[in-house]
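Problem: given the chain below (473 residues), write out its structure.
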Amino acid sequence: MVGQGRRVRAEEEVKEEQRRDVSHPYGVKPEGNMFFSGKVNCRQAGLGELRVMTDTTVGETLGYLNARDLSTVTEVSRALYAFGHADDLWKPLTLFALRTDGKFFFSKSWKQTYINTTWSGKNKSTPPPQHTPISIDNFFSDTLYQPHRDATMHVPSSWTSHENVQRVSARALTKQQFVEQYEAPGIPVVLTDLVTEWDCFKKWDPQYLSRWGDKEFQCEAAKLTLSEFSTYCEQQIDDRPLYLFDAKFVETVPEMGQQFSVPEYFNDDLFKVLGTSRPDYRWLIMGPTRSGSSFHKDPNSTDAWNACLRGLKKWVFFPPSVVPPGVMCSADGSDVTSPMSLVEWFHNYYARCKEVKVQPLEVLVRPGEMMFIPNGWWHLCLNLTPTVCITQNYVSRSGLPKVLAFLRDTPHNVSGVCEDRKNTFYKEFRDALHEHLPEYLAEAEEKEAKEKKAKEAWCSALEGDSGGFAFDF
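Solution.
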């Protein structure tokens, strides 16, 4: 009953989100509106010599200014007033001009947050000045309007209605069945009747979490207390909200670690042979609506599970060999470029998924469910409501050959360890396996050798060197 009530509340939060309709605080409108308004865009006159630049270039140019000069620029004209107050300018200024304790005090907008953050150390007896946006007339810009649209729009049902990932109850699935049917072949699956047994699922509502309100967690470039992050989540209107993603949450709050347990499906985590020197592997994740993770593959070619305690999460998967639409990836996978925000990807590329040869796997994960993410799969996750999750990456026995190959062949991409360990980490892990689990190591290396030999035979056949077929034009 607890799980059912949590799911109902999450779905009600989605409906509440869909009722939001917030106009742009500075009066910016889409460029298409100009053609029906009969008005002249004040951009041209307001930018002067800068009018030859695209809106994107104007924003990038203003990004080189410090806060004082940026504030001065906003006084020049209506157009520069709109450009100079973009959250994309004030957010990095805030995050990179943090106080020495790495905090900021979010309030209403990123400009007001910058004022609050830098003001707090100057004169605590006098409250900081309040920035009140002025709505300007006749300014049209898709570049400035799009982030606002993405931050305030409701998520259409067409983005969440399609689901083609299997759900399986843990009560009817043995560990051997899980390995054979999902882990070894690398197939995403949603597991039910696991998370609902955890104390954290039963207890971690906002009131309970407030007991740890003074504890600090990593929130991207900032480090905030849980209460400060909660305030940000309640007040923000970001197209790319900050995400609490903390690898040390059990060390920070040991009680948190006592309120969940790793399911038996995943307890053969082979990085355990490294003891406390293993890479980062588990995270507490919290985020507001529209937060989440853009397309990526999980670190070090590991498998992963993600347990949803609160909220609704939309997942989209593509197989390892299929780069998702709108994503550009370097040959070695070290550099991945995708649209600025998750909502922007759904706007511009989600419909194109129907046109690609390999259709994505999609699923809406609800409170009390656990997502299994096989190694190598591209995936994104969009939070449709405020969410709380626990996730963990692990090295499975079936996935060990791929992990060893990744650590050996792409040491520069190894993550979760300090820089000076990357080049030697493969040897460190292999030596530990040789000492503690030699049979697993031998099995993995034998499997890789067979796959390499089979690949070489196939390539040789294609080239016509082994008496097999060859293409002849």
